[in-house]
Amino acid sequence: MHKRLHRSAMSLKSFLLSLVLVFILLIGCSGNQAENPVSETRLFLDTFCTITIYGQDASAIIAEAFDLCAEYEALFSITVEGSDVWRINHAGGEAVVLSPQTIEVIEAGLKFGELSGGMFDITIGRLSRLWDFSGGSAVPSVNDLDEARMTVDYRQVIVEGDTVRLTDPEAWIDLGGIAKGYIADRLADLLMERGAEGAVIDLGGDVRIVGERPDGRPWRIGVRRPFGEWEELLGVIEAGESAVVSSGIYERGFEDNGVLYHHILDPNTGLPVRNDVVSATVVADSAMTGDALSTIILLAGSMAAQEMLTSAPGFHGAVLVLDSGEVLEFGEIVFK
């Protein structure tokens, strides 16, 4: 498991893909509210983040939302010195007092660790830091992978009140597989508190829908075709107020001697996971749930993932693309 939460140079294709998403959302809308949404894109969380609000002058609300996004990034980043995660990772196994928000994300991560039988593991930080999927091309040594792999075990995370400690002083937490979804949910809460009747939060593929579309029809969220051109879509999911989150092995990675090394790491080996799933899009009550479950699908493979998801709270449905090209749909979703 690995979705690194830090800043780096982003590709133009990632930005253009977010524009494709916004275009899809606008298709079929009518009336002044739909014709004049307020939208803004900024770079946070190692990706382009776009917030779009319909039906009102929302510039001030969007600015407030991005300020909140920056506050959460400062808590959850594995690389920002002084963040909650940084302090845990440099505490040498001592208990650290954390913000309630960080405690909440860690506890959720531990629950998903249980659900996935340890495939989703927030103590993967030592492994994830060995890899550079933002421009690097070096495969870590077997010795380095073995040493880091020995520190991975979510059961060593001890939460007591407002403190967290790691029983292995060498272990590191990485919340990159869940934090972006949590932030999207908190931004949605803020927009609803400020009176937004219809809005879309897109944090680089973690999409959180707020309220209803201005024309009363379902929101339409594009699903990218794995390994295709940036504008190629596999289809469109129609959804109401919910979250639609996509993860894929095509998102970040590099090739070495003809082998693709992607960013979804198997905690048991320290290497990119290998199974039959190349892309997973999950519809769920919350973006945090969708974030974790889409990663779990990629880690577990199609058969094991479907068994796990039957007991996952807040799960609506999923679209999986297999390495054979087959597309699987399950749950209660509309995919066209």
In a few lines, what is going on in this structure?
This protein has 336 residues and is an alpha+beta fold.
Question: Would you write up a description of this structure?
Answer:
With 336 residues, the chain is α+β, with helices and mostly antiparallel strands. It has ten helices and 16 strands. It has helices spanning 12-26, 32-35, 59-76, 84-89, 100-115, 125-128, 142-149, 179-193, 287-300, 302-309, and strands spanning 38-44, 47-54, 96-97, 157-160, 163-166, 198-203, 206-211, 219-224, 233-239, 243-248, 253-256, 259-262, 277-284, 315-322, 327-331, 334-335. An eight-stranded antiparallel sheet has the order 1-2-6-7-10-13-14-15, sandwiched between helices. A three-stranded antiparallel sheet has the order 3-5-4. It has a three-stranded antiparallel sheet with strand order 8-9-16. α3 packs antiparallel against α8 (179-193), α8 runs antiparallel to α9 and α9 packs antiparallel against α10. The longest helix is centred in the N-terminal third of the chain and has 18 residues, at 59-76. It is globular, with a radius of gyration of 19 Å. It starts with 11 loop residues before the first helix and ends with a strand. Mean pLDDT is 88; it is low at 2-20 and 26-34.
Topology:
Layout: H1 12-26, H2 32-35, E1 38-44, E2 47-54, H3 59-76, H4 84-89, E3 96-97, H5 100-115, H6 125-128, H7 142-149, E4 157-160, E5 163-166, H8 179-193, E6 198-203, E7 206-211, E8 219-224, E9 233-239, E10 243-248, E11 253-256, E12 259-262, E13 277-284, H9 287-300, H10 302-309, E14 315-322, E15 327-331, E16 334-335
Antiparallel strand pairs: 1-2, 2-6, 3-5, 4-5, 6-7, 7-10, 8-9, 9-16, 10-13, 11-12, 13-14, 14-15
Helix pairs in contact: 3-8, 8-9, 9-10
